[in-house]
User: Fold this.
Amino acid sequence: MKVVKDGMVSKLLKDTPVPKMFHVRQTFPGDSIRPEDIPGVVARELGQEPFASRIQPGMRIAITAGSRGIRNVDIITKAIVDFVKARGASPFIVPAMGSHGGATAEGQLEILAGYHITPESMGCPIESSMEVVELGYSKRGRRVAIDKNAYEADGIIISCRLKPHNAFRGPYESGPCKMMTVGLGKQAGASVVHGDGMDVIAENIPTMAEVVLAKAKILMAVPCIENAYDETCRIEAILAEDILDREPELLKYAFSNMPQLIVGETDVLIVDEVGKNYSGTGVDPNITGTFSTPYATGGIQVQRTCFLNLSMEMPWESDWPVRLPTKFLRIWMWRRCILTVLPVRCWHLPGFPVWWQMTGRPFRSVLKPATKSIRSMCVWSGFPTVCISGRLCFRKPIMRR
Assistant:
């Protein structure tokens, strides 16, 4: 960010005492697995017994691949594919990302390609479909479904990242159980898991995972964990029957590797860049404390948060009829509008999902359909709302004639 002396900010603050500031650089434990060492680590984990013997020659093995920006996800996935091939089995990759990619088979293939996961780079087919098979009902009476291609395989390997979630707390957050119920559950599973609200998602995930483990051919899970620098620091193979016991233990390890700001409380937090490539909420509230729900806590205590920019690498959902380029939005944010962040919990509002409808005048977007509650919230005083994600909204005033 360019600092300008004697600019508008300096004039506005000329009568305001500003405390002295200084630069602080934090360092965290940097234990990590080098990318070139990952194939050997995966082979060592899967080569142990009884993991190796569960993959027999001639078997068709489904391997999951998710949608969030996991470091080295292509290397990890390829290493699992290569091990399955070495055992004489036939691997194929299944996109396991719930409703991401516009809840379409093509959209999910596009997301994987963005992470360098293609049939050519992986050396095996990718079977993408939104069709699911119903497995039964959980203890809470929730319908459990799984990707049809994975269900018809001779075995399933759950490859995923294990980390704290950004909107709820429980023994099972983001990890193998969520991958089995939300990721492999496709749009149907994601809808059920999230449908009861964030206050009970921590109950839905393990109870639904129990059904998947009992009815589907889950062989093992291979979760990876990242350190404070988002580098791969641990890869561990878990037998299917041990997932429910082992995942909570690894979640504690993942929490211990989360970075924390050196101060526990501050008046103003300035974040240089936000984007869904960093977190589903734009920034990771486990660090910034900017949680979108009351069902998770952590990070620092802050009175005001300022987000300066959008990531140029932020992915766009393929189901948006109008895809606005990030560069366009950055120019809009900096030159044409006042940037504010509204604490809107979009999933609690009727009328969603929404889509873009561009008007004839530049720099104007509206949400449609606009229900009465959304209209009264978004356009009270003439502010159109631009939803960048489910939890971050930007707005600018309209010039009235």
Summary: The longest strand covers residues 218-226.
